[in-house]
Amino acid sequence: MAYYPPDVINRVKQMDLLTYLKNYEPDELVHFSRDTYMTRTHDSLKISNGMWYWFSQGVGGKSALEYLVKVRDYTFIQAVETLLGYSKIAPPIQYKQKEKVKNIRLILPNRCISNDKVIDYLSSRGIDKDIVSECIDNDLIYEQYPNHNVVFVGYDKNKTPRYAGVRATNSSRYMQDAYGSHKAFSFKLEALESNDTVHLFESAIDLLSYATLLKMEDKEWYNENLLSLAGVYQPAAKIDESRIPLALNYYLNQNPGIKKVILHFDNDSAGRLATMALKTVMPKQYEVIDDPPKIGKDVNDFLCSKVGINYKKRYEKER
Known about the structure:
Helix 3 packs across helix 4. The strands form three sheets. The chain has a five-stranded antiparallel β-sheet, covered by helices on one side. By secondary structure, the chain is an alpha+beta fold. The chain has helices at about 5-15, 15-25, 65-70, 75-90, 115-125, 130-135, 205-215, 245-255, 270-280, 300-305; strands at about 30-35, 35-40, 45-50, 50-55, 60, 140-145, 150-155, 160-165, 175, 190, 195-200, 225-230, 260-265, 285-290. The chain is globular and about 60 Å long. The longest helix is centred in the N-terminal third of the chain and has 14 residues, at about 75-90.
């Protein structure tokens, strides 16, 4: 099998789909409206704001590499070699679309008539079924049609859906935000009774895992503010120049009574760096507490260890 060094792979990943199609497959590109394109083969695959999304299949991405793998069914190596080959023959001319439009309309993935696979999947991760059912009843979680992915929905202050994170319920590890998602409104569970604390997580899975852990300890999980960031928080190169994540910034603006922020980030280098950055840049009015999982890479690993489920990201945290 061919091997390509990381710098080559990173270079290949920089080519967006619009640039690829305009340079190497112009006949496949069809103008849809204004700054939006679609492909001739798949008219439900739209390209806009530097991203692409195949609505009929519920998959999307940014790069041409992702397109070749997810849409054309290339292997990763085949996709890399295809892009390298084209670039060697004729270096691509970059095509930049307009900056992302603010308040773009969220397009929620289609719903299945049942949520059985979502419930089974989240249960297999150790998450309490009653918590999952309550989230489903409140339209915070549902099962996507036709791929049976789990969709985590986030709302604004007017209870309008503004974010949807899509995650595979099989072994593919597919994770993608739905078209039009705004990370400022990422998945969260808000306390029924007001309090001055918010718990912060990298993912919705970790958030639900923490709620389950609280329930296992006979604590009122429904009276805690739990907020996910919809992905790993990436600080600036200079830690003190980092920005507060969009989701946290919006939440704090909407909830002026919050005084304590508890971080439950991963035990890997990215999670530790994110923790350091937030503790550095958060305004002094907030008490910031680092509370990572005691066992495993993330909160879900910790939950799995507690309930006896095997987990792959095993990492024993050193004290």
